[in-house]
Specification:
- A hairpin with a 4-residue loop joins strand 6 (163-168) and strand 7.
- This protein folds into four domains: 3-159, PAS domain (Beta-Lactamase); 164-272, Beta-Lactamase (2-Layer Sandwich), CATH 3.30.450; 283-442, 2-Layer Sandwich (Alpha-Beta Plaits), CATH 3.30.70.270; 459-699, EAL domain (TIM Barrel, Alpha-Beta Barrel).
- Strands 18, 19, 20, 21, 22, 23, 24, 25, 26, 27 and 28 form an eleven-stranded mixed beta sheet that branches. A five-stranded antiparallel beta sheet has the order 2-1-5-4-3, with helices on both faces.
- It has 702 residues and is α+β, with helices and mostly antiparallel strands.
- The radius of gyration is 46 Å and the shape is elongated.
- It starts with a helix and ends with a strand.
- Helix content is 42%, strand content 25%.
- The protein is built from 28 helices and 28 strands.
- One of its GO terms (molecular function) is kinase activity.
- Residues 224-279 form the PAC domain.
- It comes from Pseudomonas saudimassiliensis.
- Residues 452-702 form the EAL domain.
- Its main location: membrane.
């Protein structure tokens, strides 16, 4: 609410008096009543402008003094107060309502509101005593209503949630101020005082210039979360506050500014909370470094500025060991210590970020590759020397780093530079860790790593959009015993359908999935789709079908794999465990024989089948067969192809088939690429054959 406008436009005359009863301000109605402009009245005493008679002045003087002494409002309901200046012979009758305006517990000013009642009261002199008459009673009711309205106006003004004050004239003299304004500025006696005298600290902050500009031009000023420093405690330090602020000019009858209405809110807490939220959104909560999103935003701006800059991508070596052995509290402490070390090695223009997990980045402005490599090596050396004791043990920490350039001069975007540095960091780990590798667009090894890394995002997207397509390659029965089973066996093969509809073979994405830890997610996705395809088969066909599904060693050994298989089976009630055979490579199986045997045994116990893939590549294969509960051996394709180069190839294949028969295990010959191998394999006793010479993969269901 614009309380200045309420004061100015109120039809009831009002005048603001100092403790010495000089006029500080008045409203338009008071000016009209005395037919004098405000400027002519400022500084004059009330009785100079409003003389009355000696008796009437005495009564009014007593009322005003009571307000000063008792610090409470006082009302004169009806007073004969002749006005000689009016040059009239008849008397004038007035009511006066005098209200104290408090400041620091003392009366700082008095709001005097005279009301001419002459038109309502037609009585002889001295008749003000006869208020028991009906006319007097009506008058008292009217005065009571006016008093209530005055009190309501005062309460609204003082209790307004925002701060309000009124400044008069070009010197900005305080005329009015509410409680919120006093709470903002703290200790002060301001009414009737020049702003520059009582708030000198705001001058150098530019607020006086803003007020002068508003007064001079008549144009308002509006500011949001404007910082201001105030001495809110006497002789105390300056305190920073943030305020929403409006300076609105007050125009006189001629339309020229005569003062300024100040309105605003103290938004310090909300502003600081907003700043904190903004900081948290842009920084890592643990280390306080910038996060990936914020550094990308800042680097986009840096790219526009030109120049060539360097990016150092840092990844702690074997961080997972500390996390697993010592717990996450130790891991968090190590990350904070590394962040602090990076700050110690950073220069003024460097940008530091935690990209996630144990990965950090340093952006070195206007720095070439040679300089960046030296800086990266210094950081790696410092991390290697970082002592990290935890619960009586001392751990050694090392770091791998990748370095790349970006910027307009390097003709590389930040995003591409980050990819180059990430790939170079991965190469540093592959080459033995604790070293620095420089990544450049022309580096073939780095480019290959980048392609693999790109596949992780593409693979996730393909799974999310259900663009993993299942093909099947059927096995041919080569022996009469196998035919008696009547089963249609085929290996499930995954392809990706690209965004343009092209089919992408597994060799393009499987290595990347294994290298970057996505193989478990991909295996589970394929298992789910294979079970769903089996569910959709006609019951008679499903009963005679068995899908061979590849499972990596990482997937098999992951926590909850068997539970996942069983829960997926429960979602497709028409699928029987016998419809599924899980293929595990021999090398994965023997790498952790006891664990693998236990997991495979649990699957077989539930009714699933198990095949040992690439059999023969593990060198000591025969010795392990007695420990693994498998129903099929898939003879490694290199041995099958070797049959065409006798005698060694044929002897090895025959030996595998004989050993498998001894364990009652059926054999599948892989990579049957030539039809002339079929009779040889049949004579050797192989149960099944698989390869392009027998069946080319086609989309499931077959």
């Amino acid at each position: 609410m614009d309380y200045q406008q309420v004061f100015e436009r109120s039809p009831a005359p009002a005048v603001l008096l100092s403790r010495g009863l000089q006029v500080l301000a008045c409203n338009n109605a008071f000016e009209r009543m005395l037919a004098l402009p405000q400027q002519a009245m400022l500084g004059q005493t009330l009785f100079h402008l409003f003389p009355g008679s000696e008796d009437s002045r005495r009564i009014l003087q007593q009322s005003l003094q009571h307000v000063l002494d008792a610090r409470v409002a006082h009302q004169i309901p009806l007073l004969e107060y002749p006005m000689p200046a009016a040059a009239r012979s008849d008397c004038e009758y007035w009511s006066f309502h005098n209200t104290p305006l408090m400041e620091e517990g003392e009366v700082g000013a008095i709001l005097c509101q005279p009301l001419n009642l002459s038109a309502l009261v037609q009585i002889e002199p001295g008749a003000q005593q006869e208020l028991s008459q009906p006319t007097g009673a009506l008058l008292l009711d009217l005065l009571t209503a006016l008093e209530a309205e005055r009190e309501r106006f005062d309460q609204l003004f003082q209790q307004a949630p925002g701060f309000i004050c009124i400044l008069r004239g070009p010197d900005h003299v305080f005329e009015l101020a509410n409680d919120a304004y006093y709470q903002l500025i703290g200790h002060r006696h301001i009414i009737g005082q020049v702003l520059a005298d009582v708030l000198p600290e705001v001058i150098e902050q530019g607020f006086l210039d803003k007020l002068d500009r508003v007064y001079r031009t008549g144009e308002p000023f509006i500011g949001r979360a404007v910082p201001i420093e105030l001495q809110r405690v006497a002789d105390g330090p300056l305190e920073e506050r943030f305020i929403d602020l409006t300076y609105q000019p007050i125009n006189d009858a001629s339309g020229k500014p005569s003062g300024i209405f100040v309105l605003g809110h103290d938004v310090t807490e909300a502003h600081r909370l907003s700043q904190e939220v903004t900081f948290q959104a842009a920084h890592d909560a643990l280390t306080g470094l910038r996060n990936r999103r914020e550094v990308a935003r800042q680097m986009a701006e840096l790219e526009q500025a030109g120049g060539s800059h360097a990016l150092v991508y840092l990844d702690l070596d074997h961080f997972k060991i500390i996390n697993d052995r010592c717990g996450h509290r130790a891991g968090d402490k190590l990350l904070t210590e590394v962040a602090q070390l990076l700050r110690q090695h950073a220069e003024e223009d460097d940008t530091l970020a935690r990209l996630g997990g144990d990965e950090f980045a340093m952006v070195l402005r206007n720095c070439g590759l040679d300089g960046a490599r030296r800086r990266a090596q210094q950081v790696c050396d410092a991390i290697r020397q970082l002592p990290f004791p935890w619960q009586g043990r001392r751990y050694t920490v090392t770091c791998s780093a990748g370095v790349a350039c970006f910027g307009s001069e390097a003709a590389v975007t930040f995003s591409d530079g980050l990819g180059l540095a990430d790939a170079a960091c991965f190469l540093a780990k592959e080459k033995g860790r604790n070293q620095v590798v420089v990544g450049q667009p022309s580096d073939e090894e780095v480019r290959r790593r980048q392609q693999d890394m790109d596949w992780t995002d593409r693979l996730r997207e393909a799974m999310r959009e259900d663009r993993v397509v299942l093909f099947g390659q059927r096995f041919d029965n080569l022996s009469g015993a196998a035919r008696e089973e009547g089963m249609i066996c085929c290996e499930v093969l995954a392809r990706l359908r690209g965004v343009d509809g092209e089919l992408i073979p597994p060799g393009a994405f499987i290595p990347a999935a294994e290298r970057y830890g996505l193989i478990g997610e991909l295996d589970r996705h394929i298992i789910h789709k294979a079970f769903s395809t089996l569910q959709q088969l006609h019951p008679a066909q499903r009963q005679r079908t068995r899908y061979f599904i590849n499972v990596s060693g990482l997937t098999l050994g992951s926590r909850g794999f068997v539970e996942y298989v069983l829960s997926t089976l429960a979602r497709f009630p028409d699928v029987e465990p016998g419809n599924v055979c899980f293929e595990v490579t021999e090398t994965a199986a023997i790498s952790s024989l006891t664990t693998t045997a236990g997991l495979l045994g649990e699957l077989v116990g539930r009714g699933f089948q198990v095949a040992l893939d690439d059999f023969g590549s593990g060198m000591s294969s025969f010795a392990y067969l007695q420990h693994l509960p498998v129903q099929y051996l898939k003879i490694d394709g290199e041995f099958i192809k070797g049959i065409r180069n006798p005698p060694a190839g044929g002897v090895i294949v025959e030996s595998v088939i004989q050993v498998a028969r001894a364990f009652n295990i059926r054999t599948i010959a892989e990579s049957v690429e030539w039809s002339d191998l079929v009779p040889v394999l049949r004579d050797a006793g192989a149960d099944y054959g698989q390869g392009f010479a027998l069946h080319r993969p086609q989309p499931l269901p077959l």
